[in-house]
Amino acid sequence: MPTLVSTQTFVQGNVLNADALTNHVVDAKPLATFISGQDAVATPAPADEFLIATAGASPAKKVSLSTLAANLPTGTSAASLAVTGATTLTGALTANGNTILGDASTDTLTVNATSSFGNPVTVSSDTTLGTAAVASATWARVTTALTVTKTAHGLTTGNTRYLVFTGTTPVASSVLNGTYTVTVTNADVFTVTVADVGDTVGTVTWFERSLTLNATLTGPLQGNIPVNVASVEQATGDEFLLKDASDSNRVKTTTGGIIKAWAKIDLNYTTITGSVTRGTPPSTASTTAVITCAGHNLRVGDVIFTTGGIASDWYAVATVTSSSVFTVVTALSAYIAPTTINWYKHNIIAGTNVHCAYGRNNIRAIQVSFINKPPTSSSYANSFNIWGINSTTMYPVQTSVTTGYIVNLYYQTSNGFGFWLNDSSGGGNANTTGQVDFMSIW
To answer: Any idea which fold 126-214 has?
Structure first.
């Protein structure tokens, strides 16, 4: 069977000249059987070669399968491309339309890209991530034929969507949830084929832009993950999300208020000594007292009770110049040369969101300062317990306008709160030891 054809024909007796012979060779063209008549290769190997005509050059050349695959033109596109086996795609890939990755539960997907997931994520049940669902659609089912009605649904026959069904009995309708290929009846109606189970009417939603993972999301989520949730007022029965450190840091819910600060405070105290001066020598007056104490650890707004140097009273820190210097504002202004001043610190045995606890020297009056402060002075509640009292009966959480106890100005502010322990005789007992436990909720 011939595989070439020429425009030059010869008959018996023709004289063979150079032109005719040249035309016979140059004008010869391959017939279809030039290819179809050859033995077939079922699985081309990377080294197998093809004939190729390079643009603007002659003669024809050869190219191997591996070289051809590695040099597909930039912007190559394919309709309904199916790729099986191990395949590597380099460069940007754009997939328009419905895209299926894997066709079995044993298939895996690896995405080597910047992600908010700090560790590998394993997926094992149906999960849909996507934009807001298409709503206001209704459905009706007759055996396995399910009809969806949605004004201007925007779908075309062959589109695939993950449909979420709601019916008269949610459990019975949810068994129909799944991925379906639609057949469009008109602009407002399409049909899908489902199992003959569950409800027969209801509403349905689907995602127009979504990624459906046949998996359950497991493993830790970490990093700065943006969320957008609605804000509501707390009501009876509301629950809060929390990280359960006792159960592999799984996210769970709990009911009740949020404890924002708590601590165990030792009723014994440590005397801290510094140096104070007020005004400028020899006699310039000022209401600002400058106190020097290395590593004082005080912040603006923290409250201390001082003795010596300036009048014994409660003072709020006005400014912090350095880790060794801070100021308070006094009622008097006369010049004071550098002299000794004391204040009294209670040890925080344990706790969170509590910066410090300073008290009076011989009265169990204590001012607590938070690390992170509530928004207003009246937006939180405190709960107290007293432990290890070895003297008279004590009654906690009293307020007083008496100087030396906790005055109302310092009792509860956005910086913290003050309390004092009142014994059965009506005053603070200087000989008590033990600890006070408190919780602050806001």
So the answer is: Thrombin, subunit H (2.40.10)
